[in-house]
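Troubleshooting log. The previous run stalled partway through. Resubmitting the same two chains, unchanged.
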Amino acid sequence: DARVTQTPRDKVTEMGQEVTMRCQPILGHNTVFWYRQTMMQGLELLAYFRNRAPLDDSGMPKDRFSAEMPDATLATLKIQPSEPRDSAVYFCASVGTGVFGEQFFGPGTRLTVL
Amino acid sequence: GENVEQHPSTLSVQEGDSAVIKCTYSDSASNYFPWYKQELGKRPQLIIDIRSNVGEKKDQRIAVTLNKTAKHFSLHITETQPEDSAVYFCAASSVTGKLIFGQGTTLQVKP
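Second attempt completed without errors. Output:
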């Protein structure tokens, strides 16, 4: 049963530290999304890639967040420096070929910035 | 900009009753409307979706209706069970495949 994986599952860090979250999409899926979930904001789209190329990162604070896909099996989301307001659950999701289809979500990374 | 409004934010029903969640979207180019269910501490999972060339779709106890003219779509759950308790998200997709999610509805089904 193919699934999206994410690491780490939980991360606690101090304000100002760098945080890197990783996502492995389902093999063969060519579109990867990064979402942030908080109680107040629901599911916010931060960025997404198709065939490893960034399509839209307008939801991401550019000064501290960066997203990349170094290869087809790995997507990364980095926060530097982290702030307490970044505390949230970060999900990645992948979709197979074709524009529309089920987004398969990873288990999420719960980030706490103290 | 693109926006999806979802109502109600919380819904409590008795087991066996029906539950209805409604969403409206702003982007008239949206043509794919999925619904996701998220149990506490878990990942969102797709439960049903509908495309703009269809007005209604049903899968056992869940159904979704779409009114493109009014830019409304709704989720209907019949004969609710305690395991239906979760947060439900609607979403609307643009032509690029990006999903805009509603704020979520917390459904509680009381035994």
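Takeaways: DSSP finds no helices and eleven strands in chain A. Chain A has a mean pLDDT of 92.
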